[in-house]
Amino acid sequence: MTKSTTRPAGRGRPIVTSHAEIERRAFELFGERGFAGTTMADIAREVGVGTRTLFRYYPSKNDIPWGQFDQTLIHFRRLLTSQSEVIPVHEAVHRAVVEFNRFPADSQPSHRDRMRLILRTPELQAHSVLKYAEWRIVIADYVALRLGQDPGGWLPLAAGHVSLALALTAYERWLDDPDADIVDAVEQSMASLKDYLQAAS
């Protein structure tokens, strides 16, 4: 996406129309007013666009903390399918989930701020359940493909649920420790997937 530099009448800042800038400014408002106290109209005014324009980027305020989630899931599928079929399926899932959770240290909003909002904001929990389901399906599809099973079978579905639980466990510990590294946390947590898949398959 590109940024427009056309200045609206009566405003000193340029119109901004990038996902990244919308998220950055939205998180500034969330920090100042709280998530519940910030409206899409507030974000639109801060960004310098109309509310209807903002809704074309994000269907709801709840979608903003998740960023361009559809694109991240495409990336996740690619990480999984790029794993060598020589390595066991549990190792492939492990490696892909770890790689999926590598983020630039200078990202804005920071990954820590983003995940703290997603995991610890009551108003977001129902929406997050939908996002978690989409993430689990990516793993279930891959495990089913590797094992020649139905994606709706118990093992692919369980692999998705277990992987999500392990990743969320890593994030909870990471958020509680400002010195922790999320990649290390996910690496340690996902290591237990090996025993689960080996015992179940």
TrEMBL record:
PROSITE patterns: HTH_TETR_2 (PS50977). Residues 16-76 form the HTH tetR-type domain. Residues 39-58 bind DNA. InterPro entries: Homeodomain-like_sf, HTH-type_TetR-like_transc_reg, HTH_TetR, MftR_C, Tscrpt_reg_TetR-type. The keyword Membrane does not apply. Keywords: DNA-binding, Transcription, Transcription regulation. It comes from the Bacteria. The keyword Glycoprotein does not apply. This is Mycofactocin system transcriptional regulator. It comes from Nocardioides cavernae. The lineage of its organism: Bacteria, Bacillati, Actinomycetota, Actinomycetes, Propionibacteriales. The gene is mftR.
